[in-house]
Amino acid sequence: MFFYELREGDDDVYADLLLVREEEMDADEFFELVQSIRRQIQDSFEEDTLVEAIAEELEREHGFIPITDERLSASVNVSKVDEDNYLAELDDEADYDDTPDYRGIFVDLPRNETLPN
Question: pTM of this prediction?
Fold first, then answer.
């Protein structure tokens, strides 16, 4: 199995997605394939992110498998604190439509010296 990554965004906000493929593809060849797909779909995709749209095309036409939450068989929360270790519940695919999609943004704001710490 060979693993590949798609990354989108800048240093502050980004999305990434891992893919797996049984046959190895040269990194330069993978880059050119991704660029070709990006040029074809960048103005017309329906997925939340460009990397998700590219991954869908890589799966459909080129034998890649995106590693997404929907494909998880198990999820385990791991911590040094015993009580914080548990087998997490996986949502059914039907539940994804009802679950809010959370995304985070980090903002570096200047310090206001008049406010308490």
Answer: 0.67
Task: Reduce the DSSP state of residue 1 to 3 states and report it.
Answer: coil
Q: 10 Å Cβ neighbour count for 81?
A: 6
Q: Which domains does the chain have, with CATH numbers?
A: 2-70 (3.30.70.2710)
Bigger pLDDT: 9 or 14? 9
23 near 66, Cβ under 8 Å?
no
What is the H or E stretch that residue 67 is in? strand 65-67
CA atoms within 13 A on the CB side of 95: 6
- Asked if residues 8 and 51 have their Cβ atoms less than 8 Å apart, the reply is yes
